[in-house]
Each structure stands twice: as C-alpha cells, then as structure tokens.
Amino acid sequence: MSATLKNDRLIKALLRKPVDITPVWIMRQAGRYLPEYRATRLKAGDFLTLCQTPELACEVTLQPIDRFQLDAAIIFSDILTIPDAMGLGLKLIESVGPKFENSISCLNDIKNLPLPDPENELRYVMDAIRLVRGELSGSIPLIGFSGSPWTLATYMIEGGSSKEFIKAKKMLQEDPDALHLLLNHLSESVILYLNAQINAGAQAIMIFDTWGGILTTSAYMEFSLFYMKKICDHLENKFNGLTVPVILFTKGSHLWVDDIAKTGCDAISLDWQCNIGEARRKVGDRVALQGNMNPAVLKEKKETIVKEVESILGSYGRGPGHIFNLGHGITPDIDPENVEVLIEAVHDLSMKYHAK
Length: 356
Fold this sequence. Notes:
Blueprint: H1 9-14, H2 35-44, H3 47-52, H4 54-67, E1 73-74, H5 81-88, E2 90-93, E3 97-100, H6 107-111, H7 123-136, E4 142-147, H8 149-158, H9 166-174, H10 176-200, E5 204-209, H11 217-234, E6 238-239, E7 242-243, E8 246-250, H12 257-260, E9 267-269, H13 276-283, E10 288-290, H14 302-316, E11 322-323, H15 336-349
Parallel strand pairs: 1-4, 4-5, 5-8, 8-9, 9-10, 10-11
Antiparallel strand pairs: 2-3, 6-7
C-alpha cells in the first residue's frame, strides 16, 4: 500500500490495519458548500453536464482535496448514472430533484432494459477516474461508488425521488418476481460498473443504499442486502496486487449491522442514528466502521464540533478500523471553515486512540 500511496490511512483503516491517526473524508465533500464548486457548476451550465464532462468532474473532485487535509477523494458523479445509461432519460431539476422521462412499471419494461457497457455508455465516469488518479499522483486514495440495486430500483419505478415510495412498495407486494428481475439486472450492471471503476483506478468502493432503511427487516434482507452481497461476491477486490476495500452504506441500518457484516464487505458506513461504540460491539473485528457525525453539527460553533468529534472517537475507542465521516452527505449551508475544524479535530484528537 505505502509503495503506491503517500497517505494510505484510509485503505489501512478499511482493512482494520494499524494507523497513526483516524482517517477522515466527508460524504458529498465535493459539493455546493464550496464556492469553487458553485463556480464550476455555473461554468458547466447544469449538474448532468458537470457529471458527464470528465475534466469538470475531475476539477470538482479535487477542489476539497486542494482545500482540506482529507485522507481520501471520492469521484464526483451521481448514483443515477446506471439508470440513465439504461435509457430512462435522467433530468435533474433544480429544487425538485431527479426525474426520469421513462419509468419502470411492468415486466416488459424490465425485460427491455439494456446492460450498459461501462467503457461505452458510462465512459465519462471511467475517464474522470483516470484523470483524478493522474492528478492525485498517489497522494491519497480515490473512492469509486454506485447506488445499490434497491435504491436505484426505487428511483426507476417511482420515476424520480419520492417520500412515500408507493409504486416501489406496490411492486414489492404485488409482483415480487418482477422486482427481483429488476434487482438482479441492476446487480449485474453495478458489478460491471464498479469493476470498471476499479480497473480505471478506484482504490476503494462504496455502495450507497440510501433507501434500504424504508424496508421492513425481512424485506431489507430479501430485496436489498441479498443483492449487495451478490455485488460484494463478484467485485474484483484485488488490483495490481492491492486490495480494493468495499464499504456498504444503508441509511437507517443500525438494526442490521450484524447482517451487513456478513456480506463480505470490508466496512459499514453508519448514519448518525446509532452509537458507533454499540455497533462496534455488535460486529467485533469482522469489519471496519465509517461515520457517523450528524451533518447538522457542522452548523454549530467550533467548540461543539470538536466536542462531538471527541465523543464519536471515544465511543469507537482504541484500535484500528474507524474511518471518520458524517452520517450522511454534507449539506449546502455549511461554512467550509467548520469542515476545516472537523478535519483538524479528527486528526489531532485521534492520536491517543492509536498510540502504541
């Protein structure tokens, strides 16, 4: 690891190997809270153009790295790239969210879905990864990612974002076979997509199951976790002799961490609704844990941010396997100076948890 990365704390922590200090990165760290991001977004004209122009995606991926002492970069993209590449016609409407021109409503819709070629329909993501790796020059690792099959399916069935998920839940209840067909197809797509990201240069992988938490326990196991395990089973977790760790994130998953730990993932990312120390006691040394500060804390004064960092570090305790992050994505209303406070606090206060 150290032969290729100047700072390999993230990879070591994900693999539960000793580190000097707890690594930290932030979900949505390239985003609207940064004035430089807003300037690049304006230059792009719209969000999809920003995502689909490798040079611009590379630029915004690197913006938080240039500003902060982060321990990882995450490629700037969107979880809905796969459904868009399947021909559903993604539109991202300001202050409304994602909308698809075509949605999935029946078995025939699912049977007609193509399997996108990552180096063709999704080449812009791979090209952005290659550009970022070149610019990082081995300084810190680059994380690639995808949405989970269940989360992608909800958007495809609903035709966009939803609060109630009425159509997705109806298909689950009334036509589970059709839903399984869709989820299996999405799993195959995600496997191809993430393996292509690894081959393009992603050094860790994260799967975002944003809407897994809306399911009952039995439905989560059958319609979400089963397919994430399938993806974990088929990822090329070695590249050039190095392990490419996999992080699973289900928002609202605190009841299921023990089951998630059995998927073969290397780390579980936790939202802020659970105590990271309790989660560690449940999973033992099977997986690393990522998280899990409430993003709203970043709106507070400096002393409050530092206190919350200390609380989470203390809850996790001594030893390897902790990657500090938020429990969800950073919001646009955050002062970048507070992000600096967070990162410095993690690095400074975590030393004592790793001292021999």
